[in-house]
Design a protein that fits this description.
Elements (H helix, E strand, L loop, with lengths): L26 E8 L6 E7 L2 H6 L4 E6 L4 E9 L2 E10 L18 E3 L12 H4 L1 E3 L2 E8 L2
């Protein structure tokens, strides 16, 4: 897998959250991205398991403008469990992760847990975080 495959092209998924089984409390996930540049938009994909992560089929996704170097996303009514995030900073507004001739990203990108990428995206396990009932927060640095 090349670095150009690390981020799925998002079609601005609204929120494809699953139904919470009866008797379980829903979770809310607030994700804050800290960016070096205060322009463009963050394109993010939320994965709810290793299968979707491997196949680049996000559970949900969103686009958010960067203001003062920060973009924040909120997902509500999530089922508690393990999730991972992939994101990139779309600096030029073309809704694609731009790469150089060898497929290396030329726009900033990031993964949950600030997991490092080396010749492809980190594993789901490296980017995995747990979402529990109630409010959960993740802060990710776009690099």
């Amino acid at each position: 897998m090349t670095m150009s495959q690390i981020i799925p092209i998002l079609a601005f998924l609204a929120s494809a959250c699953s139904t919470i089984p009866s008797g379980k409390e829903a979770a809310t996930l607030e994700v804050t991205f800290n960016a070096d540049l205060a322009e463009g938009a963050i394109m993010m994909a939320l994965f709810d398991g290793p299968e979707g992560y491997q196949a680049q089929r996000p559970f949900a996704g969103s686009r958010g403008d960067v203001a003062l170097g920060v973009a924040t996303f909120t997902f509500t009514e999530l089922e508690p469990g393990s999730y991972a995030i992939q994101a990139y900073h779309d600096l030029n507004g073309n809704e694609e992760l731009d790469t150089n001739l060898t497929g290396m990203p030329i726009e900033p990108f990031a993964f949950s847990n600030n997991a490092p990428a080396s010749y492809g995206p980190p594993s789901f396990e490296a980017a995995r975080f747990d979402v529990k009932p109630g409010l959960n927060r993740q802060t990710i640095s776009i690099r």
